[in-house]
Specification:
The structure holds two protein chains of two kinds. Helices cover about 5% and strands about 35% of the residues of chain A. Chain A is mainly β. In chain B, the strands form five sheets. A nine-stranded mixed β-sheet of chain B has the order 5-4-19-18-17-6-7-15-16, covered by helices on one side. In chain B, strands 10-9-8-13-14 form a five-stranded parallel β-sheet. In chain B, a hairpin with a 6-residue loop joins strand 15 (about 315-320) and strand 16 (about 325). The chains are: A mainly beta, B alpha/beta. The interface of A and B includes residues 43, 188, 225 and 254 of A.
């Protein structure tokens, strides 16, 4: 796999919008061409070459790997709409990383700001630190958010993650989030998304869930009243075939959406 | 002693709160307001504040070495234009207490400058707009409620103090076409953590725990769907009371929820509204039900309308990429200022220094500020340039949208001080100046 290395030369004063940093945009280009790709710094149009040292070589989309060094915590939209290839970010990263991506892989070795993997259509996003609010969520006004792919966050995700997630059985698309913990409103308006939380979650989990599975291996700070306990189970099969074992209380909900519902919430019994 | 000649203006609109009362009577003598009738205390106060006083700016001001000096309009606009042109990420904020024509020019200026354009909805009813985008909204004009509603719910709002004449004009005491006996024909419910003065005149007061409105709405919706819940109590409200409330909701002929910042600015923000809207939607399976946000500033609804028809979005708009983008949380004033992403601010008819979080204000004060502001405020005293306006709706005409999005014409009842110009004219001159400086 061909590697393109980007190293931040100077810290941007304003957030840098870097939706041009994707394997799709780099594929087939020489280093000189890559350096000329546009970035937005506040209201100035600048280039990748203005802010990054660029080295290495790009090939076709699937065989291009972008490695980003330096503190890019104020760089937004890296990997936006990418369809293949790989991006490795060796620091914290700004908002919207990997939003609307449909293929390929992004690895963030630090924490990510809000909207990480928003409206993901496919591919894999892995974050080793924490993630901000709206991980894998729908953008404002959209009724269908993350439709496929996987997001793994080792730390905690912020509020309203996986908002309006939507699965499709005929197309075999199962949007899935694994995370170490979550703030409030995880899986809000869920329409088939799968969420597995290793640790604790805050209030209002699964609010307005129509269908989908949420598994919490830790505690919930305050359950919504509209979830009803069904029974206890020892094994949960996720739509992607994965099996989780352990003792869980099974709840149905959110019953504020309808009297009968396919939405399920599993909470570990300790 | 000579008698002053008094002129009385009838049916004047009140440019204070979103109720936008249109039946005021104002007496003027020697171009000063001397008496008001029909207006509430806060509205009266605003009219009187337009009279000459030591608090009012009468000439444009420029700050030099820490003190203000009088300047000509040309000088002040020149300096303001320089600040805006030099800035890389200017913010244009406020707009909710001025008229629509000025808001339109503000949007044009923001687009030209590739700036961020925001109005006070960002810190009040912005969450309502977010929720409406997610789940729609069954709204109506206030006249419908006046004539038809027999169940009125105030959730997280306290109109006795915030919209004093709302109760007597639209929602409580007033006689409507189908509610001939006024107050006796209406059942009033107040949901609030505090036993407010509105709660004290209600037929039913439901005391909800602070920041737990979402859970209560959620339980009401589930009970409405016929689900027997496990909980005995939700958000401090016993299940029996919730069932009783659901019964009242279902049995009314025409219900309305008026909600205020008790819902939009408590912990679940737009999700409270999301759930309230879903509740109203579901209630329409049983009866007729609607809801309306209790908008604060008299023309904040107009700011949302004007920005929407100009840019496609109601607030938190970013033009940095030469087209309008919208994302509260990313392009909203408080978030931008907290992250210190703004390097110049133009404030139109607003006082963010009194209302924004301290961290945001501190960052705002680090950079140049231009204030279009008639009075001394905590924001204006820290400004670099002050452009004194005429009061829209008192000293100049314009259009304003009532909280139910009905546009009404503001009246002029007196002349502005000689050097005070309407907001629209100030913004137009500023735009011209900016264009001239950039050679266009």
């Amino acid at each position: 796999m061909a590697e393109v290395k980007l190293k931040l030369k100077k810290k941007p004063k304003f957030p840098l919008e870097a939706d041009s940093i994707t394997p799709d945009n780099f594929a087939g280009k020489t280093l000189a061409e890559i350096k000329k790709l546009p970035l937005y710094h506040a209201r100035e149009l600048v280039t990748i070459g203005d802010f990054f040292d660029v080295s290495g070589k790009a090939e076709d989309v699937a065989n291009t790997k972008i490695i980003i060094d330096g503190d890019v915590s104020n760089v937004k939209r890296i990997g936006e709409k990418m369809t293949g290839g790989e991006i490795i970010i060796n620091s914290d990263v700004g908002m919207h990383v990997g939003n609307t991506m449909s293929g390929g892989k992004i690895l963030v070795k630090g924490s990510a700001d809000d909207w990480a993997g928003a409206m993901l259509q496919g591919g894999e996003l892995e974050i080793e630190g924490n993630a901000g609010h709206y991980v894998g969520s729908a953008y404002r006004g959209f009724w269908q958010g993350m439709k496929n792919g996987t997001i793994r966050v080792q730390g905690k995700v912020g509020n309203e993650s996986m908002l309006w997630a939507k699965s499709s059985k005929p197309a075999n698309k199962w949007p899935t989030l694994y995370c170490g913990g979550a703030s409030s409103f995880l899986g809000l308006h869920n329409h088939g998304g799968t969420m597995v939380v290793d640790g604790d979650v805050d209030r209002c989990i699964g609010a307005d869930q129509v269908r989908g599975i949420i598994v919490v291996k830790g505690k919930i700070s305050r359950m919504l009243p509209s979830f009803k306990k069904l029974d206890e189970v020892n094994e949960i099969t996720l739509p992607n075939g994965e099996i989780i074992t352990g003792k869980f209380a099974q709840y149905s909900g959110d019953h504020s959406v309808s009297k009968e519902t396919d939405g399920r919430l599993y909470v570990a019994i300790k | 002693m000579t008698q002053k000649k008094i002129t009385t203006h009838y049916d004047v609109l009140c440019p204070f709160c979103g109720t936008l009362c249109d039946d005021l009577e104002v007496d003027i003598a020697d171009n000063e307001i001397i008496e008001m009738r029909n207006s509430c205390q806060i509205g009266t106060k605003k009219f009187f504040s337009s009279n000459p006083s030591g608090h009012r700016y009468l000439k444009p001001q420029i700050k030099e070495k820490g003190t203000f000096r009088d300047a000509t309009w040309d000088e002040a606009l020149d300096k303001a234009a320089d600040i805006l042109i030099k800035a890389k990420r200017p913010l244009l904020y406020g707009f909710s207490s001025t008229e629509c024509e000025a808001q339109g020019v503000g949007a044009e200026l923001a687009e030209y400058l590739r700036a961020i354009l925001d109005n006070t909805a960002s810190v009040c009813h912005g969450p309502s707009l977010l929720a409406i985008q997610d789940v729609g909204a069954p709204l109506s004009t206030l006249g419908e409620y006046k004539n038809r509603a027999d169940l009125v719910i105030f959730w997280g709002s306290n109109p006795v103090h915030a919209h004093p004449r709302h109760l007597s004009r639209y929602s409580d005491y007033v006689r409507g076409y189908f509610r001939k006996d006024g107050r006796n024909d209406r059942y009033i419910v107040v949901v609030d953590p505090r036993n407010t003065h509105t709660a004290q005149i209600a037929d039913l007061y439901i005391k909800v725990n602070p920041n737990e409105d979402y859970e209560l709405l959620n339980a009401i919706r589930a009970v409405l769907r016929g689900v027997e819940l496990d909980a005995k109590e939700v958000s401090g409200v016993p299940m029996e009371d919730i069932k009783k409330l659901v019964d009242i909701l279902k049995k009314c002929h025409f219900g309305v929820i008026f909600f205020g910042m008790g819902l939009t600015q408590t912990i679940s923000h737009h999700r409270n509204i999301d759930s309230a809207i879903c509740l109203v939607r579901e209630l329409n399976d049983h009866t007729k039900f609607l809801l309306t946000p209790m908008r604060g500033h008299y023309n904040v609804a107009g700011a949302n309308q004007v920005f929407t028809w100009n840019t496609g979005y109601a607030y938190s708009i970013d033009f940095s990429r030469e087209y309008a983008r919208y994302n509260p949380g990313e392009f909203s004033s408080v978030d931008l200022l907290m992250n210190d992403e703004v390097d110049a601010t133009l404030i139109v008819a607003s006082d963010p220094a009194s209302n924004f979080p301290a961290g945001a204000v501190r960052n705002m004060f680090k950079h140049p500020i231009i204030a279009i502001e008639p009075h001394h405020t905590p924001t204006s005293v820290y400004a670099d340039v002050i452009l004194p306006p005429a009061f829209a709706g008192i000293e100049c005409e314009g259009t304003a949208y009532r909280m139910d999005k009905v546009p009404l014409r503001l009246r002029k009842v007196k002349d502005a001080p000689v050097d005070c110009l309407p907001d629209k004219e100030i913004l137009e001159r500023l735009l011209e100046k900016v264009k001239a400086k950039e050679g266009k």
